[in-house]
Design goal:
By secondary structure, this protein is mainly alpha-helical. It folds into 2 domains: 51 residues, no CATH class; 74 residues, no CATH class. The radius of gyration is 22 Å and the shape is elongated.
Length: 136
């Protein structure tokens, strides 16, 4: 993975309380908050909702734009494409063993970092240059 390639970092993700492993402190947070005395309950519920609601709203937006709307566009442009069922989550983990390729001065000389060339670090030639150096 090219350390300058933005593609492996996408999509940017938002973790909601529903994305944690099954055993976590947020699993029964609402029930625990209900057991608090009145004033602390108001304060803690307010704090919890300030953290919980924006991440869920963002997750729904991602699902709308990167899921349903993009799925419709792909269906229209790719014959036979059927969008997958959405997972209602934006958390993800990269799989496999990583070999991170770090650029050197030769890389920066051959591939000067130009903000207008957004896929430059994602193309084959930059990867080939750095992979050749691994075997040396």
């Amino acid at each position: 993975m090219n350390s300058l390639d933005w593609v492996p970092e996408s999509p940017f993700s938002v973790q909601t309380v529903n994305d944690f492993n099954g055993v976590n402190p947020f699993q029964n947070a609402k029930k625990a908050i209900k057991k608090l005395p009145f004033l602390p309950r108001l304060v803690v519920r307010h704090m919890y909702n300030k953290m919980d609601r924006p991440s869920k709203k963002t997750q729904r937006r991602f699902e709308k734009y990167l899921g349903r709307k993009l799925g419709k566009l792909m269906t229209k442009n790719l014959k036979g494409f059927e969008p997958p069922q959405l997972a209602h989550s934006t958390t993800f983990t990269r799989c496999g063993n990583f070999i991170v390729l770090y650029p050197d001065t030769e890389y920066y000389t051959k591939f000067p970092q130009d903000p207008k060339a957004i896929f430059m670090n994602h193309m084959l030639d930059p990867y080939l240059l750095m992979m050749e150096k691994l075997s040396k």
